Each structure stands twice: as C-alpha cells, then as structure tokens.
Amino acid sequence: MKNRRKKIIGGIAVTVILVVGGGYAWAATSDQQELDNSNPEEIEVTEEQALTTFSDEYDQTVESLELETSRDGYMYDVESYDNQTEYNTTIDANSGDIIDTKSDNDDDEDEEEHRYELDQQEEISREEASEIAENEAGGGQAREWKLERVSDSTQIWEVNVLENGNETEVAINAEDSEVLEVEQDDD
C-alpha cells in the first residue's frame, strides 16, 4: 500500500512539473513567435499620436512609452502616474484606440522611488534609434522599443533587434544618440 501511494504521489509530482514546465516553454515560444511574426511596417500610429490620444483622455504624467508586439499586432503601453496612482494604458498602434487602462495605488514602500516625466521634445526619433540599434547589433530588424526618462539628465531608448531568432537589446541615450549598453539574449 505504501509503495502504491508513493508511486501515485510521484506520478502526480511528475505531471505537475511537466505541465508547469510546458506552460513556461509554451509562453516563451509564444512570445518569440509574436516577435518573429511582427512587422514594424504595419505600425500606423506614431509615438506622438499615441501620446496625444493618451493626453486627450487622461490628465496624468507620462513616465514611459513602450511599443511592443502582441497577438493582435503592435500596441503602445503608456506608463503614467498622478499623486496616488500608477497607470498602464494600452493603445492599438494600428487604430490609435485605447484598448485598456489598469491602475495600481502607490504603496508607501514605493516613496523612495523617484519618477521622471518623459520629455517628448528632446529625443531622437524611433527610426533613428532603430538604425543605431540595428548597426550595434550587427544586422537584424528593430522590433520593439521603449522610451523612458531614467534621471533628470537622461532619457533612453531601449530597442530590441531580432535577427535569425537572436535578440539584441540596445540602450541609447535619446538626447545625444550615445549607445549606453548592448545586451545579447543567448537563449
């Protein structure tokens, strides 16, 4: 009876491990497929248009703007905040429609975190950042972007470049085009 119970428990444990591990593998593969199948030429809405759509709807300070792939095409993710709340707003990069807004109340623990307002006038364009990142990566195509102010004096573009299934992330000073970091994904 003890042996049978051990076999059953062991079987359940192996099944759980396989299901959970398979779920993670599927998610990673799914994310990579979205990136592989993305086409930046399908982006109809510019960063400026997305930010205008956002500011027409909300009175919040923008912290960052990210353009990334999803199953439904490219989406902008606008991270913003006010005195008590952090927000994430998703805008369709093809239609310009606001898809979703989520909010999270600031915790007292986060008071140490300093936030910086995105300066939309002081950056190089996404196209310029893409060209710099593609050159640094040694080829490939820029597929995802994030524009973020990280200090009083520095605003950066983080650009993900994809070539033959390999991803390279390039951080670029958005004000003077200096390459700050290049990181290759070795997966």
TrEMBL record:
Gene3D superfamilies to which the protein is assigned, alphabetical: 3.10.450.40
Compositional bias per record (Acidic residues), positions renumbered to this chain: 175-187
Annotated Basic and acidic residues bias: 113-129
Regions annotated as coiled coil: none
Region of interest: Disordered: 87-146, 168-187
Domain PepSY: 45-101, 124-183
Protein name (Swiss-Prot/TrEMBL): M4 family peptidase propeptide
